Amino acid sequence: MTATTLDSTAASVPLQQDATVIGLVGLAHASSHFAHLLLPLLFPVFMKEFGLNFSELGLLMTTFFVVSGVGQACAGFVVDRLGARPLLFVAMGIFIAACIGASLVTGYVGLILVAALAGLGNATFHPVDFTILNQRVSAQRLGYAFSAHGLTGNLGWAAAPVFFAGLGASIGWRNAYVAAALMYALILVVLVLQRDKLSTHVVRHDPQAHANGKAEHDLAFMKLPVVWWCFGFFLLSTMTLAVVQSFAVSILKAMHGISFEAATYTITAYMLCGATGMFVGGFIAARTINSDRVVAIAMAVGAVLLALCGTGLLNAQATMVILAATGFAVGIGGPSRDMMIKKATPKGATGRVYGLVYSGLDTGFAISPIIFGMFMDRGWYGATLLGAALVLLLSVGAALGVGVRTVKAH
């Protein structure tokens, strides 16, 4: 199938076909976010079973995100050359192998290998997902598609604790991993049965152009400043999310004496508010031309709310409410963020650009716990939230920088 055929088809397809593609990609995306928590949710078990400390457990997640980040930057090139669908199927197979491996581990080395394997599986999803969405979904529905994509990712995060808590208590943690492998196998079957909806065209180079030295090199897109501004945005905004996911429970307990359960529910509320924000943001993205400005406003509001939580001026209940509202503010910018990246992407380089840009997400997840972990070790709980708010505010400048450079490029 040629690029022209796909592009013309995407412009006139019925709603049901667009919805099917969006649903399939959303299912895959939810499974990748579920994989983010394959190991962290069992950290207390690993500490008890294998005598591990927090530093060793932290290295597991660093391993996951380093492998995922490097792999994601490379996966984009493969997606552009081979198409998105083959890599999607391979990624699901890797997740199955990671879950089976986790059920069999007998020590720390095994966990490191599982973390690396899961990170490798996670590496393909953003270049794969956005290549499929950009090629197979009608242009007028892309804003909604990006909204659903972000929303399903949050739901994947929300489903993992329920899955492992429920099954872990009833059948044991090793069997829970086996159940997770079966879940991934079922998802793979669904994707294979609907594979015709997931096909994408590949980048084809003109041999004559290569012979004449006129063909553009595969790495040419890396010379574009806008690509690196996009990378910077993801790096900065994800560092803030990593603080919330990694340390918010401890911060709430230390600053306000909130119980572990209440603090955990606050993080769940943050994620659900983020999903709601993404749903609302989809309508905004579909109706707004200046995506960078929507992103900048959303991140700025989120930064202010997070900073307010860090001041310690609010009581416990107000802090929990405001922190959850931060998720809603940031979530609104999600679909417009993806539209912003689409507008900045050169034609024919979707996989490569999304792969490199979204590796900024993995980089942020990898380095943020190291930097802000030092704050936490010193008891600087409020400063940790204020620092995260400052980083989120810096991402506002990055988003506006993307918008300016996108206009100049076109």
Quick rundown:
The protein is an all-alpha fold and 410 residues long. The protein has helices at 3-12, 15-36, 43-50, 54-82, 84-104, 108-122, 125-136, 142-171, 173-193, 207-211, 225-256, 260-287, 291-310, 316-344, 350-377, 381-409. Helix 4 (54-82) packs parallel to helix 7 (125-136) and helix 11 packs parallel to helix 15.
Helices and strands, in order, run as HHHHHHHHHHHHHHHH
Cα radius of gyration in angstroms = 21 Å
Work out the helix count. Answer: 16
Shape: globular
Here the CATH topology of the largest domain equals Growth Hormone, Chain: A
Low-confidence stretches: 1-10
Euclidean distance between termini CA atoms: 28 Å
CATH architecture of the largest domain, by name, is Up-down Bundle
CATH superfamily of the largest domain: MFS general substrate transporter like domains
The total strand number stands at 0
Strand content: under 5%
CATH class of the largest domain: Mainly Alpha
Helix content: over 70%
* Largest pleated sheet: none
Number of domains: 2
Strand and helix map with partners:
Layout: H1 3-12, H2 15-36, H3 43-50, H4 54-82, H5 84-104, H6 108-122, H7 125-136, H8 142-171, H9 173-193, H10 207-211, H11 225-256, H12 260-287, H13 291-310, H14 316-344, H15 350-377, H16 381-409
Helix pairs in contact: 2-6, 2-7, 2-8, 2-9, 4-5, 4-6, 4-7, 4-15, 5-6, 5-7, 5-9, 7-8, 7-15, 8-9, 8-12, 8-14, 11-12, 11-14, 11-15, 11-16, 12-14, 13-14, 13-16, 14-16
Characterise this structure.
The chain is mostly helical and 410 residues long. It has two domains: 15-198, Growth Hormone, Chain: A (Up-down Bundle), CATH 1.20.1250.20; 220-409, MFS general substrate transporter like domains (Growth Hormone, Chain: A, Up-down Bundle), CATH 1.20.1250.20. It contains 16 helices and no strands. It has helices at residues 3-12, 15-36, 43-50, 54-82, 84-104, 108-122, 125-136, 142-171, 173-193, 207-211, 225-256, 260-287, 291-310, 316-344, 350-377, 381-409.
